[in-house]
Amino acid sequence: MNSSLTPVAVALLYQPGCFLMQLRDDLPTILYPGHWAFFGGHLEPGETPVEGLKRELWEEIRYTLSHDPYKFGCYSDQRVIRHVFAIPLTVPLTDLQLCEGQDWGLLSVADIERGTCFSAKANSVRPISTLHRQILLDFIVDLRTGQNTPQIPKKF
User: What family does the entry list (predicted)?
Assistant: First the structure.
């Protein structure tokens, strides 16, 4: 692994047939402005990916993990290494609070396959980040084939 890459931890928060994602703010200074993306973020110095993920989920949606999540994989590009964790969403959205981003929603497998989803708050169809969409498509294939996700229920 290239040590010059910025480490981040992101969550595939899932329920049967859907994934919780955030619609990022429309700020040109952030990655994926106005796109659907995962919850998560940069690791603080000395933080493990799991510690960082737990902190980020609390900061962004007030979700507390009761146990360590399943690590689905790592995805890197020229700048970032993403530690991707699959986590069942075990509470209703009404028990959570959106603290970052302009909207959130449970995106269906059809939304993921299409690459877009409507946001009521933005009153428009918005794209799913290309990289996040690819990670979700990989995850869905693994769920359907049982290749790398044997511990996740096959309710998709």
Answer: Belongs to the Nudix hydrolase family.
